[in-house]
Amino acid sequence: MIFEGSEKKVELVVSDHLPPLRSFGKNFWEEVVEKAEAKILSSISSEACDAYLLSESSLFVWDTYFTMITCGRTTLINAVGAFSEHVGRDNIQSLIFERKNEYFPRHQKTDFYEDARQLNKIFPGKAFRFGQADDHHLFIYHLGKDYAPSADDCTLEILMYDLQGGGKEVFACENQAVDSIREKAGVHAIFEGFKVDDFAFDPCGYSLNALNGKDYYTIHVTPEEQGSYVSFETNYNLAGGIENTLNRVLEVFQPNAFDVIVFRPKNQTWQDHAVTVAGYNKKTTVKQALQCGYDVSYTYHYKKVEDIQGAVPLEDF
Amino acid sequence: MIFEGSEKKVELVVSDHLPPLRSFGKNFWEEVVEKAEAKILSSISSEACDAYLLSESSLFVWDTYFTMITCGRTTLINAVGAFSEHVGRDNIQSLIFERKNEYFPRHQKTDFYEDARQLNKIFPGKAFRFGQADDHHLFIYHLGKDYAPSADDCTLEILMYDLQGGGKEVFACENQAVDSIREKAGVHAIFEGFKVDDFAFDPCGYSLNALNGKDYYTIHVTPEEQGSYVSFETNYNLAGGIENTLNRVLEVFQPNAFDVIVFRPKNQTWQDHAVTVAGYNKKTTVKQALQCGYDVSYTYHYKKVEDIQGAVPLEDF
């Protein structure tokens, strides 16, 4: 079975003249999610945020901004279009659209270049590639508008590839019981005090949303043998640096390779791009200030394998 | 402009009861090439081989085997189907089909899995992935039939990414005059004594076929800014190891990363997988004996960049 784990993501901030986005209600967000060809499976709320678990990843809605992450063959770009039509594009203060290079890109309905062209018609903006074209890389499109994020508006994304050891075992297809995953993986306890909503997919896959006030973390696991993949994302506890969270997450999933993406308001003195992790080589280091108000760092790390590997037999091609 | 440099390749050996493949004539091969949605541009011959330069790469025809390499959006798999229908599948002794992971895979008409399924219907066989799914990798499908290649039946493929320095400059779009490329790049002189046929494409790209008796080398350059790529392949001079040829080719193209693929008849004592090149890190080392009679090594090397890079602005998305 082939399932694309790599995600598309949009973070969109609206003018505070609009009614709170949370007041738009579940039906409205259901329609937005449907435009992406995904479905809402469940939701939890905190005093500041509604978190929807989707058939393909997650949607977090605060009063003036939302973050939507979708994987598989979803068309996130269409959800962005439908939302902006509803609120009016002049009410959009910031829009950041991301796509990671995919495992099975030929099965995608669009590629990043097509998405960027579509966005550019509605929201003239800028597109970047973080990393080498022939290697792990991330595409970012952002609205060509100055924006000043608040000082604590930071995001950490950890994208993990080719799980090993316990990480591989816990999330393997044959072990897909939510209780067993919770207990063995410790994904509920990555941070304390969070309300958690999670789902184990049939036959494979696991998603988790967690909320605490305005803070969230989210995890999406695609354990397929042909390319296991996990994404972790949070806005929590980044004022003290990313190392503790990164190490904790890597301990759970034990990937052979991972990317780290950090967004911080510009002109802070963070050195996220300088991160290193014992046992991993760092292959790519990118740092870029974006006009939309953020400094973004992207690093790609891989486990040095000294052994000669055999080729991987493909059984169910 | 987006052009896919990464190639598909087939090497196919027929029974020696058939008439010599070269006697099938240019019209026959033209039809085979057309099935792949490519065209013959020119040809040269030696006493043992006809070499066709194609609109998308190359075809080499010897009396009992042929090698066809195509890039862009070609459908090499259909050419394989047409050929096998013509000669009868029982007359096929060995078939090896390769695909490198692509830069723009969504623009491909099939992916490797689809190609392998199609092949498997006609020629039950085996499929392998050399390298990690999330990283540089090569797919190989081969016929599930024992085959004993002759002792000198060796092939070296060097796939090069992200040209730098002189390699970048000589092949840049604005410098696409064949004479200037020949003179500056020294591609005619990689080995001595070869007859050469080459072509500079408009607006970009360069292809070269070279023949000497039964030996060949071929070069295909895709200099596009969004992902420059060069492939080099030869069956020449491999009895003395691959190092000299590899270093010579790398000197011309100066890539930021490259893959080396070596096919040798099984049970020889070569250690091609142990190759290292000064200035490059080796990330992946794969060695695999295939039932079809070859030992295959695949290694992926990249230039260690110590600097922090900026993101690459995408201008013409």
Task: Provide a concise account of the structure shown.
Chain A has 317 residues and is α+β, with helices and mostly antiparallel strands. In chain A, 19% of the residues lie in helices and 38% in strands.
What features would you describe in this structure?
- Two copies of one chain form a homodimer.
- With 317 residues, chain A is of the alpha+beta class.
- The first copy, chain A, has a single domain (8-303), classed as S-adenosylmethionine decarboxylase (4-Layer Sandwich).
- Chain A has six helices and 17 strands.
- Chain A has helices at residues 25-35, 76-87, 112-122, 165-170, 178-185, 243-253, and strands at 8-14, 40-45, 50-54, 57-61, 65-70, 92-100, 125-130, 138-143, 155-163, 195-200, 206-212, 215-222, 229-234, 255-265, 280-289, 294-303, 312-313.
- Chain A has an eight-stranded antiparallel β-sheet, covered by helices on one side.
- In chain A, β11 (206-212) and β12 (215-222) form a beta hairpin.
- In chain A, α1 crosses α2.
- The model of chain A has no long low-confidence stretch (mean pLDDT 92).
- Chains A and B meet through α3, β7, β15, β16 and β17 of A and α3, β7, β15, β16 and β17 of B.
- β17 of chain A pairs antiparallel with β7 of chain B, so a sheet runs across the interface.
